[in-house]
Amino acid sequence: MIYPSSILLYQLSERLGIDPNNIFALTQNKKFKYVENVKYVIKDCLKQKQYKELYEIVKKEKDEKNFQAKEDKQFLLWHEAIAVFEVNRSIKTALKLLNNALKLTLTNVDFLSEREIDIMQTMSIFYAENKEYDKSITILGRCLTNFNKLDFPRDKAIKLKIIFNLAKCLGMTYQYEEAVKYIDKGIKLAINLNTLYLLGELYYLKGWNLLRFKQQNEEDIANNMKKALFIFELTEKETLIKMVKEKYFENQTEKSHS
Question: Which residues constitute the signal peptide according to the record (predicted)?
């Protein structure tokens, strides 16, 4: 999408006898709407895990230069990092892009904004995917501390995501009891927020960690797995339904038959 230059707009407004500010306001509004629409499409790609499409959109928008406001530039860099990581598996480039995105707004490392926390969380996910769990745990700890300092967080689901990812990394580093502590906080938060977002995953993760305790409580494990399966079925998450059945319920059936 090409927008007329400010000089051209100014000349046009003079010819038409219109206050140039009115024309600028009009095009700015159109541009704003365009950027917001693109953001919506980008978020949707992310939700649907359509990373190749995300990559194409981000590349196109970088060339078009419509994302000029600081926050918009940051949004684009952040999602470019996700696309680069998912499509090319290039953690080095992805982390560099995230650092550049953070630099645009970061003023105080002890008081991060909601967006900055979310960007840092993306960083922690990259490290975890790269099996650098300790780095991921450190970053997520900072994210949680900073999120708790926010007076009026707009999106409390970010905290839920931090807790979930932290519990996941703790489980991967054999800190099962610590992981369960965070999972319980996450379950409580999801229920308080009246959301099913990550609730099934949290119940499954709790069961997964409880399975690794020296003293196992079979009933507790089964309850969490059943809750996870129920939520996955309710929300029609086919991949997760298959996973929980294969990794837990089918094993239980085999055990009872042996």
Answer: none
Q: What's the pTM value of the predicted model, to 2 decimals?
A: 0.84
Please tell me the distance from the alpha carbon of residue 53 to that of residue 126, in angstroms, as a whole number: 20
Angle ∠(202,205,211) on CA atoms, nearest 5: 145
Q: Using 50, 70 and 90 to split pLDDT, how confident is the model at 242?
A: very high
Which CATH superfamily groups domain 162-258?
A: Tetratricopeptide repeat domain (1.25.40.10)
CATH architecture of 61-148: Alpha Horseshoe (1.25)
Among 256, 172, 171, 254, CA closest to 210: 171
